[in-house]
Design goal:
Blueprint (H helix, E strand, L loop, with lengths): L7 H20 L9 H6 L34 E9 L2 E9 L6 E10 L5 E11 L4 E9 L12 E4 L2
Antiparallel strand pairs: 1-2, 2-5, 3-4, 3-6
């Protein structure tokens, strides 16, 4: 190949192909770290350990298909607790009603791992008289991890 008129990237392709071939050949040479090829052929490689079977099929708990969320009422809901409960996990907080009529809020809480995998969820409704603040809680029994997070993807008014 004439590399004088070729683009710089076209000249690099054959060099990369040769480098890949050399690396692949080095990985498949059959030599041990000491360079003794006969030692590698005397002992067969150990089989990979088998995966440990699970007692039963692991199924994710179904999540709600539609979550109502009203950004205008989010500021009225405060989460003050996200903690383990007997046999699962729970969240709690307060719900305020700054209005002049009673309202009912629906709160959806996801229980997620620290890497954001949702393991389960809980849904609760809380009635709040006009001008008052009341506590709320949502909990669920499931196989929780030692540390969980409690995001609230859905906060809405029940109509």
């Amino acid at each position: 190949m004439n590399t004088r008129n070729a683009s710089p990237s076209a000249a690099k392709v054959p060099a990369l192909v040769m480098l890949a071939a050399v690396l692949a050949a080095g990985c498949a040479s059959g030599e041990t770290a000491t360079g003794d090829a006969s030692a590698a052929t005397k002992k067969a490689p150990a089989a990979a350990p088998a995966a440990t079977p699970v007692a039963g099929p692991v199924e994710a708990n179904p999540l709600p298909k539609k979550i109502h969320n009203d950004p205008n009422v989010r500021s009225n809901i405060v989460q003050t607790k996200c903690a383990a409960v007997p046999g699962g996990w729970g969240a709690a907080g307060t719900a305020a009603n700054p209005g002049k009529k009673p309202v009912t809020y629906r709160i959806v809480v996801y229980f997620t791992t620290t890497k954001a995998t949702t393991l389960d969820y809980a849904r609760t409704q809380v009635k709040v008289p006009a001008g008052k603040t009341v506590p709320w809680s949502a909990k669920k029994k499931f196989d929780a991890e030692d540390k969980m997070l409690c995001p609230m993807p859905g906060i809405s008014l029940v109509t």
